[in-house]
Design goal:
Number of strands: 19
Helix content: 25-40%
CATH class of the largest domain: Alpha Beta
Distance between the termini: 44 Å
Number of domains: 4
Strand order of the largest sheet: 8-9-1-10-18-19
CATH architecture of the largest domain: 2-Layer Sandwich
Number of helices: 8
CATH topology of the largest domain: Alpha-Beta Plaits
Shape: globular
Length: 434
């Protein structure tokens, strides 16, 4: 599917909820109908050429065996260029990000006379385009739409968009869900699947990968039991700390306990508990026997039934990846993973430094794991000590930053953050003040 020509990588984001919830405007859970304009705002750019297409007319010195409706790729300086040849009018339509070629203040006449060597992806035969004129396309292909909704329904939102902005779009979706559903997060979870793929990846393989992720996320239909480790209410917010057998570390949640007008909220911030008897003043029992407890009356040790919010990401660097085992994480892990990358950007001295340090640690990690990836006795503690020493020596990080990186290495968040940002998004670490 060539819907997003001009982006070397594409991303599909799928948002799904477990329960069908309709709102007065006919849209559903997490305001997904309102996500479309919010996603588009991510791509707002002062450079109008970001979403424009131009028609380039070749002059008489241009040469090549151009074929109708074929895409030709080349470079102008260090900038990649993709053009669609139109035999009927003997011209080329730009199908790449023109903001890489033209600055906001530049006009299309800047392109007059430039020379571009072009070839197709499946041929080494090159031709040369010398631009005689450039004009804006006034037809339906004149504007590039980065965000392409594929499905909008009460149960699911599918969208296709350029990969380089997919993280920001997902951040917006999570923020919107938290704003609207923070009181009922335990029973109305957001499930997110992200499939990233190169532009030339067969779309059939992408769809198969998507279906695999959706089926996997949809299989989590039974609630988990989370054990309350701590509960503190301050002003109008209750902070809860949970421990779950399915997660290696404590999970923190905050729940508003007052309505916007200042009244106590005795409607929404209730959680289903294991107990079979009403114990506190705000407890109530459903006719089916389930006891619900207000968030601020939870106590340490209470078992709570939670439908977890989950995210699954997959990078399809080959068609075979659609058959790879999937790995789900808590949606809160996504936010921590993103914050972790910000920390790395600010503190790692260079791209090569973080890449070299992590490559060494991955290699050494295998020495303390068996063939199934399980830690040997004392292996994880030894490896984390090594991790601390390597980061201290090779990255120069200290204090809280060092401990945060070591902790993330132990939980697997560092693997995910580096893989997503460096290998998938191709982000660069320039180094900051340590």
């Amino acid at each position: 599917m060539n819907s997003v020509k001009g982006s070397t990588q594409c991303g599909g984001v799928w948002l799904k909820n477990m329960m069908k919830i309709m709102t007065p405007d006919g849209l559903s859970y997490s305001g997904r109908g309102k996500l479309n304009p919010r996603f588009r705002s991510v791509f707002a750019d002062q450079n109008r050429w970001r979403v424009r297409r131009l028609v380039l007319k070749p002059d008489n010195s241009s040469f090549g065996l151009w074929e109708d409706r074929h895409i030709y790729n080349g470079r102008y300086g260090d900038t990649p260029v993709s053009l669609l040849y139109q035999a009927k009018t003997n011209d080329f339509l730009t199908v790449c990000n023109l903001a890489r070629l033209l600055k906001p203040e530049q006009d299309k006449e800047f392109l007059h006379g430039i020379k571009i060597q072009l070839k197709t992806d499946d041929s080494n035969d090159t031709g040369q385009l010398v631009v005689a004129s450039a004009k804006e396309n006034t037809g339906s292909m004149g504007v590039y739409f980065p965000v392409i909704p594929l499905e909008l329904s009460p149960m699911r939102f599918r969208v296709l968009l350029p990969l380089d902005s997919s993280s920001n779009c997902l951040d917006l979706a999570v923020k919107k869900w938290k704003e609207q559903f923070s009181r009922v997060w335990d029973r109305l979870p957001l499930r997110v699947g992200v499939v990233a793929f190169p532009r030339m990846m067969p779309f059939q393989a992408v769809i198969e990968a998507t279906r695999g992720i959706e089926e996997d996320l949809d299989s989590y239909r039974e609630p988990e039991i989370w054990r309350v480790m701590g509960c503190k209410t301050q002003e109008s917010v209750t902070a809860l700390s949970f421990k779950s057998a399915n997660h290696p570390y404590a999970l923190l949640k905050t729940i508003p306990t007052k309505l916007r007008d200042g009244r106590e909220d005795v409607f929404y911030p209730y959680l289903a508990v294991e107990e079979k008897q009403v114990r506190y003043s705000l407890d109530f029992q459903h006719p089916d026997g389930q006891v619900y407890r207000h968030a601020k009356e939870l106590r340490t040790g209470d078992g709570v039934f939670i439908y977890p919010t989950l995210i699954s990401t997959l990078y399809m660097d080959s068609t075979a990846r659609r058959f790879a085992p999937l790995n789900q994480r808590q949606l809160t892990d996504w936010l921590q993973m993103r914050d972790l990358w910000t920390m790395i950007e600010w503190n790692a001295p260079s791209q090569s430094a973080i890449h070299g340090a992590w490559s060494e640690l991955i290699s050494r990690r295998e020495d303390w794991q068996d063939l199934n990836g399980n830690w040997m006795d004392g292996g994880k503690e030894t490896w984390l000590d090594l991790t601390r020493a390597v980061f201290y020596d090779r990255l120069g990080v200290r204090g809280a930053c060092l401990e945060a990186l070591v902790e993330a290495a132990g939980t697997g968040l560092l693997d995910w953050s580096l893989e997503w940002h460096m290998n998938v998004l191709k982000k660069q670490v320039s180094g900051g003040d340590i």
